[in-house]
Amino acid sequence: MIKLLKQELCDTSRLIYDRGLVWCTGGNISIRIPHTNTFLITPSGFNKGLIKPNDLITINASGETLEGRDKPSIEVNMHLIVYQEKPEINAIIHAHPPVATTLTTLGFIIIPFTPEGKIFIEKIGRVDYFPAGSPELVKAVKSQLRDTNIILLKNHGALTFDHALLNAYYRMEEIENTAKMNLIAYNLGKKIPII
Ligand SMILES: [Zn+2]
To answer: Residue 43 pairs with which residues in a beta bridge?
Structure first.
């Protein structure tokens, strides 16, 4: 089963890279090993399009490495705070969706206005800029966890989470595509029609 989980994580990692939601060594993904308080997470400094199952790190709820050659992602504590505060969550994606990040940084509100947008976006949290891996970023994310499944990080990116990895991926894909559609409306000088 661990083998399948690792493959699922690598497939999703490849998807976020192929969709342009991360590039260079950006972003990180984790999943809970079912019915445990241990997790698989991407290693620090790897391109998300190239990660292999054996590159993944197994950690405990304190962030200590149980298995793996490399260091876990620098954002490990941002993942762990979500698992700690929301026990129903089993998968987390942090990516750098370019349009959603730009609109958020410039102070625009991203408004879902299609049926898929309404399903996958729901309530969005937002946090100011804090350096990657900092305790301040973890604290800011913690403050936005209530009722949200997407948190937008100013000058940085986005965090999505759900009970299943594919759903966390859908949320990331949806927030970026909704941001693109919002940008088109803004460029046309139109208000976003809310349904
Ligand atoms: Zn990042």
So the answer is: 72
Q: What is the pLDDT of residues 122-139, one digit of tens each?
A: 899 999 999 999 999 999
Distance 171 CA to ligand 1 centre (A): 16
For this structure, is 75 an active site residue? yes
CA of 95 to the centre of ligand 1 (A): 6
**Backbone torsions φ then ψ of 41, nearest 5 degrees:** -140, 150
pTM value is 0.96
Q: Which of 8, 64, 67, 75 is catalytic?
A: 75
- Residue list, CB under 5 A from ion ligand 1: 157
Q: For the chain, list the domains and their CATH numbers.
A: 2-187 (3.40.225.10)
CB 9 within 8 A of CB 18: no
State the distance from the centre of ligand 1 to the C-alpha of 73, rounded, in angstroms.
Answer: 10
What does the alpha-carbon distance between residue 191 and residue 86 come to, in Å, rounded to a whole number?
35
User: CA 179 to CA 110: how far, in whole Å?
Assistant: 6
